[in-house]
Amino acid sequence: MAIDISDRYVAEHTRGATQTALRTIIALSPAILAYRRALRWLNQGRAHEGSAKCRITEALDNCASHFQQHRWALVENFFADDFHRELISQWPGRYELKPPRTLAKSYDTGLSWGAGNAEPPRNIRKYHTLMQLRACLCCVDFSRRISHVHGRSVNLQCNSFLLHMTRSGSQVFPHRDSYYRAKHPALNILMFADGQGGQNGGGLVISRDNEFKDIIVEAQNLRNSALLYDVKADFFHGFRPVGKGKFRWSMSAEFKGK
């Protein structure tokens, strides 16, 4: 859950035709959900086969010193090239996702799983790349690697996964996650699969304030990159409204320790 949101920022960034269009989508979400359920039923027998094995490159390991000093790290060439190509070719249609429910996080999300899912959900099992990614994120070796990046002698395990797609005007208000106040460590990885990037491209922003006036970093390249951050660090995150004609395909994974 998002906390510590600026009312002034919300008032300034929920005006205009694009935000009005998003309000209409949110209002119509029950009908959109029903339509997408029908599309999923029509496509339920379609499998997306592949051959690439998920490999997250050594660029992740190489960011450890930066992360441990700054509590965030931007990683280029996150996935091996063959897996990234297959990930893009198998990217799910928007009908697989749920429409936005609030302007605070106004993008489509879905194909999620959590620590309580012993078996991958059925809608993920038909995607070779998502099954490969799930196995990679949940394996012992990756737990060791991401724990090393975090530092501080933690043992992080993958707790949840979510896939996202933006549209024009999509945004996430700058905020902290409610887990910021929790006792145990947590690290989030936002993985960018594809997108034009650049100004108003939907790249994640990390800022010292909750109005994006004191920005620390903003992801610009949204093709095969990732931004990692410590959930309990003293900064805010989100992204500014996506520009007209731009898009962002991304995935997030949260890792928690005890």
Can you tell me about this structure?
The structure is a single chain. This protein has 258 residues and is of the alpha+beta class. The chain has one domain: Jelly Rolls, CATH 2.60.120. 30% of the residues lie in helices and 26% in strands. The protein contains 9 helices and 12 strands. The chain has a 7-stranded antiparallel beta sheet with strand order 2-10-7-12-5-4-3. A hairpin with a 7-residue loop joins strand 8 and strand 9. It is globular, with a radius of gyration of 18 Å.
Short note summarizing the structure:
The chain is α+β, with helices and mostly antiparallel strands. The protein is built from 9 helices and 12 strands.
Number of strands: 12
Q: What is the general shape?
A: globular
The major beta sheet can be summarized as:
7 strands, antiparallel
Using only CA atoms, what is the Rg?
A: 18 Å
- Specify the number of helices: 9
Q: How much helical structure, as a percent, in the residues? A: 25-40%
What is the beta-strand fraction? 25-35%
> What is the CATH fold-level name?
Jelly Rolls
Strand order of the largest sheet: 2-10-7-12-5-4-3
Low-confidence regions: none
Can you name the CATH architecture?
Answer: Sandwich
The tally of domains stands at 1
Pattern of helices and strands: EHHHHHEHEEHHHEEEEEEEE
**How does the helix and strand content classify structurally?**
alpha+beta
Q: Kindly report how far apart the N and C termini lie.
A: 20 Å
Compute the average pLDDT.
95
Topology:
Elements (H helix, E strand, L loop, with lengths): L1 E2 L3 H6 L4 H11 L1 H14 L16 H4 L1 H7 L1 E5 L4 H9 L7 E2 L9 E7 L7 H4 L2 H11 L1 H11 L6 E9 L6 E6 L8 E10 L9 E3 L7 E4 L6 E6 L5 E4 L8 E9 L2
Antiparallel strand pairs: 1-6, 2-10, 3-4, 4-5, 5-12, 6-11, 7-10, 7-12, 8-9, 8-11
